[in-house]
Amino acid sequence: MNKDSNKSILMIITALFFMWGFLTCMNDILIPYLKDLFDLKYWQAMLVQFAFFGAYFIGSLIYFLLSLKFGDPINKIGYQNGIVIGLVISSVGCFLFYPAAQYAMYGFFLSALFILGLGFTMLQIAANPYVSILGPAETASSRLNMSQAFNSLGTTIAPILGGYLIFDLFFSEAMSGDAVKVPYLVFGALFLLMAIVFKLIKLPNFVNDSEIVKGIGALKFPNLSLGTIAIFTYVGGEVAIGSFLINFIGLENIMGLEEATAKNFLAYYWGGAMIGRFSGAISLSDMPQSKKYLYMVLASSLSFGLIFAIADVSFETVIPYLFIIGINFVAFILGKSVAGRTLGIFASVSVILILVAMFTNGNIAMWALIGVGIFNSIMWPNIFTLAIKGLGKYTGQASSLLVMAILGGALIPLVQGYLADIIGVQMSFIIPVVCYLYILFYGFYNSRKEEETSEEEQEEQAVGMMH
């Protein structure tokens, strides 16, 4: 297949990553909307994330068990068909929002979200490897980074566009539940259209040769067993903050803003991942150090400019956010491009920011919590890479276990919701603090191992030179 064809296919898949990110972040808009619509307690509202991210666990568990019994399912049906199946399931989940709104049943909404999550699980398994094969192996990382950046762009735009559709454009129908009908019908139609496109286009054949072994021998590796918990706490902490952010900003002692206005600030939280990912990709590249810093500043500035352009927030209001971007730049320098060290530093800053949000008020508390989004950026790839390092034939099994750990996004917001009903929203953020403290431990634990390995290699080299 020629380069032009590969580029066209990559553009289509990148659009898929964008929609995938967009719909995931739409949950943060749904939570306050459904909470008001059905007069829910916080823990009940967090069932939105429980249903959606619980589907990741159930879907990946089923996939894992099928792999052990019959071999890798994707290898049997093909990655192209895997993407098509994922898109069709996702479209069904979106279409089910219509009857859920028609009958005004909260359980129906949760069922629709669960099916949507199952579709996204299949896309997680099928779409990521496809990006890596659409071109030379040496540029696979670059293609993945670009697709993930567009995924972050989707999570950045979703609070603005999705919030406008639900809280503004269809606001008059909001109290009847009809506000979500049109948006999710459109999303369902788009997923179905993309399924047809992916079924008709010709894609290169790909076979995954990684071995799926019986049993759970992968867990004998400490970096994986501890890393599985790290993924659980990272996804849980990130989703919990995003889920509560609109309600947090709406508190009288914070900003006291209406949901339609608060949604604009949510874009800065999820947009922070885009800022950090672009900077992280440059930081971990092999370009000269002097150019790295220049391009990191440029990438951060352009990403911030995009968020500022789409979010209706004055420049004076976002000045604290610029200060946090500066802290992020310093954290990258201190990390010295070492995965474990950088992860530990980013988690440390996240803990400090959340504590500031818990024990201060107004603008400072709001921006401290929003700023955590910037430091979430490198956590998934760093944890994932550290967790599967040195696993050899257990790598395929380890990947399935790590995807299952996305269950954190289902359970941790639920726990925080229950706590928020008892001690209030602001103090309930102690739950994400605990999550990031564990990530801090995991980062520095691996950093120490990396340093010990480096010292051993240096000693071996020295002995070799002596002989």
From TrEMBL:
Pfam families: MFS_1. Gene3D superfamilies: MFS general substrate transporter like domains. It comes from the Bacteria. Residues 9-450 form the Major facilitator superfamily (MFS) profile domain. GO terms for cellular component: plasma membrane. It is found in: Cell inner membrane. Keywords: Cell membrane, Membrane, Transmembrane, Transmembrane helix. It is a multi-pass membrane protein. GO terms for molecular function: transmembrane transporter activity. The chain crosses the membrane at residues 12-34, 46-66, 78-98, 104-127, 148-167, 182-201, 221-246, 266-284, 293-311, 317-335, 342-359, 365-388, 400-419, 425-445. PANTHER family: L-FUCOSE-PROTON SYMPORTER (PTHR43702), PROTEIN TSGA (PTHR43702:SF3). This is FHS family L-fucose permease-like MFS transporter. It comes from Sediminitomix flava.
